[in-house]
Amino acid sequence: MGALLAGLVVLVFLRNLRLTAIVLVAIPIAIIASFLVMFFTGDSINAMTLGGLALAIGILVDQSIVVLENIVRHAHMGKEPLDAAVDGTSEVLGPILVSTLTFAVVFLPVVFLSGLTRFLFEPLAIAAVVAIFASFLLSITLVPAYCAYLLPRQEVLTEDDDGKNGGWFGNLLVRAIAARWLVVGASVAVFVVAVLISMRQGQELFPAVDSGQITMYVRLPSGTRIEETEKVMKEIEATIIDQIGEPDPAFALDPNTQEHPDSALQLLISNIGVLMDWPAAYTPNTGPMDAFMLVQLKNRSATREADSYVIDLRKTLAKKFPNVEISFDTGGMLTAALNMGEPAPIHFQVQCSDLEKAQRIATIIRDTADKVPGATDVRIAQRIDYPALEVEMDRELAARMQITPKDVMTNLVAATNSTINFEPTFWIDKNKGNHYFFGVQYREEDLNSLQTIRDIPVMGGDHAMRRLGSVAEIKHTEGPAVVHHRNISRVTDVYAGVLPGYDVGRVVTEIERRLEADDRLGVTLGVDDRGPIANLGADEFAGTSYRMMGEVKLMRDSFSQLSIGLVIATLLVYLVMVVQFRSFTDPLIVLLTVPLGYVGVVLLLFATNTHLSVPALMGIVMMIGIVVEYSIVLVDFANRRMADGKSPTDAVIDAARIRLRPILMTSLTTWLALLPMAIGFGGSGTNAPLARAIIGGVIGATVLSLVVVPCLYVLMKRNPVASTVESSATTAI
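Predicted structure:
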């Protein structure tokens, strides 16, 4: 779709099918070249590499358009097609080479990324850079060769006619240059406004994606028997079916065989409690009071978004089950991968060895977050009120009886659970070949009192059987269902989701602000080897701390890494242009296009309610490489005019009039080629912020740079004629 729109723009401007075909032939060849390089580098064709090529489609034709349009201009001078092809290509060879190098250099920030974000965007960057270099080679070889043989003879135009279609634009530039200080000042003011708007822009790691499924985490009060948990889950399932419809698993295989066509529900899967042998391997549940449920919706194009169902379910379930803790996640597998498996985007991790103290800190964080607008499903992951039996062994007495702590533990585990956990008996049925594990355990109904536990037999080294109660004191107590560790240290986790319409960045910033102002904690911000940390200075919590983890940490790290890389890339772009222009001033004029493009980025993101994310930042990076191309060729043409003896004003006006059409063509082909991706056409909207950032930057840079750059050129350039006259006068004196 993007390629077709780009081709339509070229056809409208050139009004010649043959010339349009010359430009468009570069697209498939450049893409094939990218596939060949990916083959030898071992990169696969995936969503990110295809996204990089899709982003590059509009850019691929830019260089060919510049070369072709300049060849046509030389043909209008009365030159033969071959001479026009050679002269036209030679004239723009340097500028488009520099623009190609700058486009490649701006992808340097990808090198500074780490973890998942680098894994995602490195293939995109490689695919786009390879395609651009292939496009450059095609623009200086294939395009001139085609023009030499296929370019029809052009009407000869005089110098006055050159750029006549931009006569109105030339008059506009004359007025703008006359008021150049006002134009530049207004541009600075617009940029400042854009910066202020961006400071209030929402932030997130990646845009929310409607995966078509809902994951629900259900937690009942500690000590709830699994039979009661199962009963509640059946009631929750009935509520879901009542609001969404009957499950229709056949839809996954054949949409035409739906038994419940009016239902939006495909599958409903519940998981209750934990497995006896591998509780952490298959479920996030920590005990019989925990459960999770997967709600798989049908084709998203035919149903409501998952978030809309969550809004209704959250209200209904909160009324029916006020004592049940239910949280929702609509991100699916993609969000889980991006969040490093975290169940929610906001994750506060409390580091404290004292579990009771950690729980009090976590409770303050939870209560604070729960009051922040936009935060939802706030919960503490670990509980310390799980019913437990405390066995305090009399070690001195046990030693006299030749009973070790291991003896006590193995007999206690065997009675309350099964011997299969520590000493399984393995048997193979020779007749049928079946394999069996045998374990010994008490009947559940026999473990109905402390006395039963006290009567558990324990055999010591002397092989005498004794009661457990004779060597240990047993009593009811409470304890943690699970204890999490990070780098050996005990941690307690607090999770929070974000409601639709809110962004992670602003919600978590507000939570942090309120926590830092809470005298109960006495927060002092610092940095250690793992990054930012909040140390607690209150007497009760001395020596403890908390930090942000998960998506928020990854988002902030990625933003910081991209910012550092962007600064370095900008310096390298400047040095590349210094070599081309042999001037320190001209590259500054070109780079001032970037703030103008940034204005367009901010305004379009704001208009489309798009949050600032890693894809959006990558779009800003790509925008830099695209928009500097406009100014590079414009400044190069102006310098050629000044070398012929024209004043800076006349030179830049002539250059702008000549470059008006190719700049408009390249701008339109770029943002029209990206338009399907920007509106999320044909797939996931993960790369939509990237495309929107590029489109906004291209539009902003095109509109503003065509007027502002000439004004800057006149302000920063000296008149060589005037300088010569001044020098001669000085010599005469």
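Summary: Residues 386-479 form a domain with the Multidrug efflux transporter AcrB TolC docking domain; DN and DC subdomains fold (CATH 3.30.2090.10).
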